[in-house]
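Structure ticket #2291
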Amino acid sequence: EKWDVAEEHLRAAFRMAVKNPRGEKVVIPSSSPDADDDSEPDSMKKKNWKKMTKKEKIQAVQLRKKQKRAANTAAQKNVDSNNLGIGDASICTLSSAASAMNLAVFLKSRADLVVNAVSSSMDTYSSLDSGDLYAEAKNLYLGALRVRTALKGPKHPDTIATKFSLAELIEVLGDEKGANALRQELLDAYEIEEQDDSHNVAEEQK
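Resolution: structure written out below.
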């Protein structure tokens, strides 16, 4: 079936994007940011770790922990503001977020088709569970939103599109309150942007 072929193609693209990450990565908030980590810090890879003195190694490790705590704090502020979860943890780059979005849109569309088929007493898609498809799509949307918010900002068109799609999906799942909260965030983002534009116009006219 064409739907099956398309799904496998999108899943393969997503797996490839996750397995071969490109570009900046998003740090997922850790439950234990202060955990001991005495491995060679990324910032020191260009130097010979073995030739560093004990004091230099301690300083490097401490710097890494400090940077990790800061990154986790920043990430936490941008993640799960509506208590919906962080989504698929394997999504950490913009390329994987884009692939996740493509797959999520497909899965939601297929789930909608299953629901319509069931309501019409059609058994064509009886082997598929719309709930599972919706749940997976939600997980992918959340992961993509987490990455795009962190790397592109809350007002970027891609971030807004992701949040809008997520709002539609969770409303289908019965979470009207969560969907409205996301839509309110979209409205707030537009209002802030309009205020900024108005301020800039006023400044230019002075």
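Closing remark: Residues 31-46 have pLDDT under 50 and may be disordered.
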